[in-house]
Design goal:
Layout lengths: L11 E6 L2 H9 L10 E4 L8 E4 L1 H4 L9 H7 L4 E3 L3 H18 L2 E6 L2 E5 L12 H16 L3 E6 L2 H11 L4 E3 L5 H6 L11 H9 L5 H4 L4 H8 L1 H10 L16 E12 L2 H21 L2 E12 L4 E12 L2 H18 L4 E13 L8 H4 L6 H17 L6 H5 L19
Parallel strand pairs: 2-4, 7-8
Antiparallel strand pairs: 1-6, 1-7, 2-3, 5-6, 9-12, 10-11, 10-12
Helix pairs in contact: 4-5, 10-11, 12-13
The structure holds a DNA duplex (18 and 18 nucleotides).
DNA sequence: TCTGGGGTCCTAGGACCC
DNA sequence: TCTGGGGTCCTAGGACCC
């Protein structure tokens, strides 16, 4: 049963924290959430929230992640709802990752509560211990050191480890041995395979395909014709348990964004622009925290009818200041509002085309040419960061900094003077 | 029932260049 | 004058995941 070259098989583990948000919420508030028999974590200040995580007994009622909270409470009226303890979750996630790093050469945080481990090459280190035994040891150590219950899935590729962990939950381990990938995949419904969502499922069903077994005989050529070369090949490999993706310790960050759904829809441009300032500052802060700059700014708008639109602009030079992000975002918001003027449900700001480091960029050639970001902008943002560092995150209010011109007006954008940055 | 917030990846079309 | 093909960059939108 040993493959011809057993050193070629990779050994991938997926460590998944059991009902992570529920677990952390209980531990953060042992006398409150900790004692609630039916706990749901989620909601949002807007009152328009969804379920982030529901404890197992609540799931018996049909409650699922992503479900509108109103619906969840309909299904399970006696449920206790608490907000997501974000900071505690981030802290805990870092603790878990730190323990995993002691035990695995490569650890990739796939999300706040999931970690891929590439254990390839650790056989000698662990003196021939089976991957399953290693997984159990990891599980115990994470629990001992952080108080976090995790499940562990294992296999030769990420996809298989990901499916395997579902078998292990909660608090268990499941490892699929090398050579068993394809057979293991056949045990799953198409919808359970990560990456196959409602849309792809619909398209397949339209062709009379409902199960992995029905899809297996379809030539890769057909899949490429149906779904395009990339996706076609991807799907063909997927259902056979083939997954070329690797575990990477520090995947490069591609974008940073911040968005808000409002408690009630917003119609006034002035109000929207005020929110746009806050969001721009939030994004700028993270951008500088990561020591990065961005060339593309995107504004996202969700209208009251849930239509979601976005507009983006790529600049010749990267930005790092709140002010420059906001000015660009304000332009883009204007475009979006000009195209369609409906009450806004959600507003978001994002940056992408990221580059490393604010560095010690030499000054002023650009400023003289009227670039989008001035030295003054950068200085201002650094000052803001410093004030926040010393006096806390709320030390700086957006309005005065971002709108030196003083009072904003409530008039239509069309009547405002042209921007001359 | 009425739909969060943070991301990644893919596609398609247009502009532009060679 | 008509007709190419390929590559890169950008934008908008959509699917999907936790």
């Amino acid at each position: 049963m040993t493959p011809p070259d057993s050193t070629a098989a990779r050994r991938i583990l997926l460590v998944d924290c059991d009902v992570f948000f529920v677990q952390v919420a209980r531990q953060e508030d042992p006398d409150g959430a900790g004692r609630a028999p039916l706990l749901v974590v989620g909601g949002s200040p807007s009152g328009r929230g969804v379920v982030t995580s529901a404890d197992y007994p609540v799931r018996e009622f049909g409650v699922r992640s992503g479900m509108p909270m109103a619906r969840a409470l309909e299904l399970c009226p006696r449920a206790t709802v608490v907000p997501v303890p974000r900071e505690a979750c981030r802290r805990r996630s870092r603790q878990v990752r730190a323990v995993l790093r002691e035990m695995a050469p490569v650890v990739q945080a796939a999300s706040i509560d999931e970690f891929y481990l590439d254990m390839t090459g650790t056989q000698r280190l662990y003196r021939g211990e089976s991957l399953e035994d290693t997984a159990h040891r990891i599980r115990r150590r994470v629990l001992d050191r952080t108080g976090t219950s995790v499940s562990v899935g294992g296999g030769t590729v990420r996809l298989v480890a990901k499916l395997a962990v579902e078998r292990g939950k909660p608090g268990g381990v499941h490892v699929v041995p090398p050579g068993r990938e394809a057979a293991f995949l056949r045990e799953h419904a198409l919808a359970r395979i990560p990456g196959i969502g409602p849309s792809l499922l619909d398209q397949l069903e339209a062709k009379g395909i409902r199960t992995v077994d029905e899809l297996l005989p379809v030539d890769q050529e057909w899949l490429r014709r149906w779904f395009g070369p990339t996706r076609g090949r991807w799907l063909w490999e997927r259902i056979r348990g083939i997954d070329p993706s690797t575990v990477e310790a520090e995947p490069e960050r591609k974008s940073i964004s911040s968005e808000r759904t409002f408690p009630t829809d917003i119609e006034a441009d002035r109000t929207l622009r005020r929110h746009l300032q806050r969001l721009s500052m939030e994004v700028g802060r993270v951008l500088r925290e990561k020591g990065m700059r961005a060339r593309t700014v995107t504004v996202k708008l969700r209208d009251s009818d849930f239509t979601t639109r976005q507009s983006s602009r790529t600049l010749p030079e990267p930005l790092q200041s709140d002010q420059a992000i906001y000015r660009t975002a304000d332009d883009l918001l204007g475009d979006l509002r000009d195209r369609r003027r409906a009450p806004a449900r959600l507003l978001g700001v994002g940056v992408s085309s990221l580059e490393d480091g604010p560095g010690a960029r030499q000054l002023s050639l650009l400023d003289e040419a009227g670039g989008p970001e001035t030295d003054r902008d950068r200085t201002l943002s650094r000052t803001t960061d410093e004030l926040r560092r010393r006096f806390g995150p709320d030390a700086v209010l957006p309005a005065r900094i971002m709108e030196p011109g003083g009072d904003d007006d409530d008039q239509d954008r069309t009547s405002e003077p042209e921007d001359t940055p």
